[in-house]
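Posting for a labmate who doesn't have an account.
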Amino acid sequence: MRAIILTALILIGLVSWFGAYSGSTPSRSEGEQPLDSPVEIPGEAVSPASVPPVAFGEPSGANRSIEEVIERLQWTGSCIGCNLRGLDLSGVNLVVFSKPDEGGLLGTETAAVGVNLENANLSYANLQQANLERAYLRDANLESATLQRANLSRTILRWASLRGADLSEAILTGGKLQDADLNQAILQKTLMDGVDLSRATLTRANLRGALVRDAQFQDANLQGADLTEADIDGSNFTGANLRQSQLPRNFLSRANFCRAILPDGTVHGTCPQS
């Protein structure tokens, strides 16, 4: 009986030993990688230079903060081609500082040529002498912004709000400002040749001494605007509202006022022959 029990125990031990041996994980040879580890393929490594840059304002985990955008603009004076669409930059001071080793203020020039600022909030921002040539500012909020001597030539400002903005001595040559709101904006001595302000609101705007030759003001609202000493030669005021506005001398012979409401409230019936 004891022999039978001893034999059974030996058999159970052998079975257990064989089971443990068959279930064990074999050791990896040197250099062999586990199945769940990333395998490096020669020539397929991704370098930092191959990763596309992230544009300012684009949704991304590497998205730059507003503070970084401002810092770049202030210290480098450049944001050429940046995408700042929809950012809130209200009240920001974009006065450009000099490089750390130069000391003092470099001035207020900021280069943002071709920048995308569609629907951005720049209300009360300081953009003196900023270079915003060819910038895209459709639907942007520039209410009460300071844009003295800024370069806004060929800039898209359709439907933008420039209420109370100071654009004195700025350059708006060839700008597209259709349907823009420039209520009480300061455009004194501003260069506006070839600008398109069709259907724009310029009520009580100050355009004294402005150069607005060959500009488009079709159906614009200029009620109470001051165009004293402005050069309006060749401009088109067809259907514009100029009630209670102040116009330069001999204005009727210098521009097209077809169907425009003149300062005294009368409608000018003389239209150029097609």
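Reply:
Got it, the structure tokens are right above this. Residues 1 and 239 are 122 Å apart (CA to CA).
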